[in-house]
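User: Sequence recovery, please. Input:
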């Protein structure tokens, strides 16, 4: 197809020379100098448009026509005046040189355009590296961006660290896996001009860290090396992010462990003190009357049960915060769960005025009772800690737009707008209270995660003297129900 198109361009160029000759000889007679300039202008156009070959052949045709029709003796290919030989030779040389210069200028312009396109594509690819998200493996997304940006038929990246070959492009890249692995290990390169395939090593410094295979439009060595450098930067950036995430996960895990230990130590002091007081009194007075001994034993038993519940809650908090939440759904009444939580927290809120209101009988819905108790307890515990004993805490269960909502309202100092934005973040505690009121910064985060796992949510509205946390549960939920 390319050869036939070249022949057509040559024929069209010569036809153009013929048209100029016929016009200047038969239609509007011109002198030889004017015709020569017309030929030169036409040849410059041909050279700048199609190239040197077409312009050269047209120059020869123009010289022949110029000699035959415009230099005496007209109608022959002989030249009587020696000066006309010089003129004809000068015309031919000038036209060829002009054609060559025009073609060279055109080639340089095309090269400049190609270099600009390469730079734009390299910039686009480099920018795409920064925009890769976490939806797929980094290397896979990197290859997709590379294939799209440079319009390649197929690309493949071999990463020795994972042992995976990541492919992209509309065509399957097969049959070069061994060369890919060798290039990554030895730093070698391969080229298959028949299939326009190239394999290059990806290096970080002098050490090969991966290999890249490309199939499609041929590229210059500088562009290939630039692509390799960008891929190396992208892979190193991905590794740095993975390492940072691992360090952060380890740090947060350690912080979680320390926080839970501190929280448990603080919470365990109250029941342990009561148990110790009861057992000490019994040991100090072994002969005391049965009613008094029975009361002491009952206190010890109640506080031991409270201590067991605290341990269960602490373990549950650690499980909910570190793993995926698995729900054990069963159809239950939300009001019953709230009352059970209030009963279990009786000792802690005995000095607090607390009112529970259920406006209307609530329908039974499916939820995880154990996790729901934990979520409600976290919110109530938060309300008790941040409101004074003389201020009432109200709990209200209502049905709203296909959901059941549990509203817990306290009348403490309130939560600032800046703190409301971050209050559900793990470990976040307001600078205004973190040194005054004990806490881990985990309770609200865990409660929200539990509600979201149920398809609901936990929200807060606050102003000075009035704060309401709302736990929302959908009334209809798909899933396994016991």
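Assistant: Recovered sequence (482 residues):
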């Amino acid at each position: 197809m390319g050869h036939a198109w070249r022949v057509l361009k040559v024929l069209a160029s010569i036809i153009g020379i013929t048209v100029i000759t016929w016009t200047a000889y038969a239609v509007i007679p011109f002198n030889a100098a004017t015709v020569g300039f017309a030929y030169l202008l036409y040849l410059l156009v041909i050279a700048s448009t199609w190239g040197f070959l077409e312009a050269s052949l047209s120059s020869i045709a123009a010289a022949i026509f110029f000699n035959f029709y415009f230099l005496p003796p007209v109608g022959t290919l002989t030249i009587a005046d020696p000066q006309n030989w010089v003129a004809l030779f000068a015309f031919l040389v000038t036209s060829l040189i002009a054609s060559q210069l025009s073609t060279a200028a055109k080639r340089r312009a095309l090269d400049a355009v190609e270099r600009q396109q390469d730079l734009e594509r390299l910039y686009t690819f480099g920018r795409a590296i920064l925009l890769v998200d976490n939806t797929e493996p980094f290397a896979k997304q990197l290859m997709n961006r590379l294939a799209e940006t440079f319009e390649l038929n197929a690309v493949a990246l071999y990463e020795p660290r994972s042992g995976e070959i990541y492919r992209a492009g509309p065509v399957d890249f097969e049959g070069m896996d061994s060369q890919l692995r060798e290039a990554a290990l030895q730093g070698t390169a391969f080229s298959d001009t028949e299939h326009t395939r190239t394999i290059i090593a990806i290096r970080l410094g002098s050490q090969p860290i991966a290999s890249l295979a490309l199939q499609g439009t041929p590229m210059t060595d500088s562009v290939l090396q630039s692509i390799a450098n960008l891929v190396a930067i992208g892979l190193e950036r991905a590794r740095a992010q993975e390492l940072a995430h691992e360090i952060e996960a380890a740090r947060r895990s350690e912080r979680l462990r320390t926080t839970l230990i501190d929280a448990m130590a603080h919470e365990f002091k109250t029941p342990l003190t009561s148990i110790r007081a009861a057992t000490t009194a019994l040991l100090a007075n072994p002969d005391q009357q049965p009613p008094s001994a029975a009361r002491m034993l009952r206190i010890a038993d109640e506080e031991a049960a409270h201590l067991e519940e605290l341990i269960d809650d602490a373990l549950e908090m650690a499980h909910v915060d570190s793993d995926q939440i698995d729900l054990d759904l069963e159809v239950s009444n939300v009001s019953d769960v709230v009352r059970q939580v209030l009963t279990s927290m009786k000792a802690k809120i005995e000095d607090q005025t607390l009112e529970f209101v259920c406006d209307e009988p609530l329908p039974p819905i499916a939820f995880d009772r154990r996790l729901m108790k934990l979520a409600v307890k976290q919110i109530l515990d938060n309300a008790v800690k941040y409101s004074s004993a003389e201020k009432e805490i109200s709990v209200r269960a209502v049905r709203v737009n296909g959901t059941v909502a549990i509203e817990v309202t306290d009348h403490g100092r309130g939560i600032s707008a800046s703190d409301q934005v971050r209050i559900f973040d793990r470990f976040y505690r307001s600078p205004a209270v973190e040194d005054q009121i004990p806490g881990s910064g985990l309770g609200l985060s865990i409660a929200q995660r539990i509600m979201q796992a149920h398809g609901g949510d936990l929200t807060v509205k606050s102003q000075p003297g009035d704060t309401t946390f709302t736990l929302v549960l959908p009334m209809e939920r798909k899933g396994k129900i016991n």
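The chain has twelve helices and twelve strands.
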